[in-house]
Design brief:
about 50% helix, 3-stranded antiparallel beta sheet, 11 strands, 13 helices, 6-stranded parallel beta sheet, alpha/beta
Amino acid sequence: MLKEAIRDYKFSKEMTVNQLVLQMENAWGFTAGKAAVGVQILERMIENQDCVKFLSFTGNLVATGTRGIFKEFVKQRLADVVITTCGTLDHDLARCWKDYYRGSFVMNDTKLHEEGVNRLGNVLVPNDSYGTIIEQKIQTLLQELYKEGKRELSASQLTREIGLRCCNESSILYWAAKHGVPVYVPGIIDGAVGYQMWLFSQDHDFRLNLLRDSGELNDIVFTAKKTGALIVGGGISKHHTIWWNQFKEGLDYVVYVSTADEWDGSLSGARPREAVSWGKISANAKRIMIEGDASLILPVMMGALADRL
């Protein structure tokens, strides 16, 4: 106690993002202090050669420019495993070929619907940029796989094929497939890509084997000396990440970024300390929860990491 004094920010024309984050360590300032600690934890996690690194995030962020942060995380080999939602597959694939647009949180949603435009927060997604292009790409892919004799795939096998055959270098899935980073989607039916698979299965002998993914995750955690995770948002992708890590006595490094509250007992809002009680995070883990919008926090944190690494 009372050893480290608070210092004010100082600015200059030459200041880098990393220099700003380094000042946050001394400026402290509530969430800024947490973000500074989060960067330190991620830096240690990435530099630990014995650590299997998980990247977990929800699909809504992939509809924004934050997609580029996740892509770089995978492209630069800062993640060994990705766990996400079907929305990531939808938006990552669609944005390889079509644009999404800037909108507002307050718009005439009835008019948008009549004009074939979907609103995701303040992001506008025309039908042609979403359902239409996804149907075209996924149905073509499934036809190709079926002709090659593939009748059953795991979700991670499918995401690899999507990355290699349907996406370009702007894509998270593309770089994951190129670098051999498995992408697990436990709720893969919950989205446009999942719907297209169901549609294809109606007149083809084709199915998904989700248990195969579970076997792979089992092997990953049971053979890992250390594990760490950047977990952005909540829901199924967050829980799947911490669930599997309980079988190796919990994550050793973890950074949560979320806007969710804990007072309602939700998994999304649960803080790292709660996961300690379940053994999903080690009691000795380096851990932090950063409350705030990931579309604002992640660019700052990743800008600092890029400098340090």
